[in-house]
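Good morning,

Attaching, inline, the backbone tokens for the sequence recovery test we're adding to the shared suite. The designed sequence is right after.
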């Protein structure tokens, strides 16, 4: 059974940094894309960034220049380095892994990790 296990969330002051990790267990297959979404209280879940198996990235405008995603295919792990954090970055961050199939994408989710940025 595929599981995505996140770590690295926490409380940080504005301007600080955090690094999130997401490790895949239960599968050695290379996912077509992996990434991070976030959901703030009372808001919908939004894409933060995705990275494909060939390294192509897609960042939300709000995090460009501050967040960096990286992927270790050998470890089936993805990282999110978050710098210059702002209070509006406060949210539950969830890891996502995708396999593209003819019948539609097969998606896996982590349990989420809380990131809180104080002003």
């Amino acid at each position: 059974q595929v599981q995505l296990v996140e770590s690295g969330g926490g409380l940080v002051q504005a301007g600080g940094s955090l690094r999130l990790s997401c490790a895949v267990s239960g599968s050695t297959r290379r996912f077509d894309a992996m990434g991070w979404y976030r959901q703030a209280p009372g808001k919908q879940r939004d894409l933060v960034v995705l990275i494909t198996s060939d390294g192509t990235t897609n960042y939300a405008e709000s995090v460009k220049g501050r967040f960096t995603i990286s992927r270790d295919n050998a470890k089936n792990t993805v990282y999110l380095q978050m710098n210059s954090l702002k209070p509006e970055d406060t949210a539950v961050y969830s890891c996502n892994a995708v396999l593209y199939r003819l019948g539609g994408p097969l998606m896996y989710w982590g349990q989420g990790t809380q990131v809180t940025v104080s002003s």
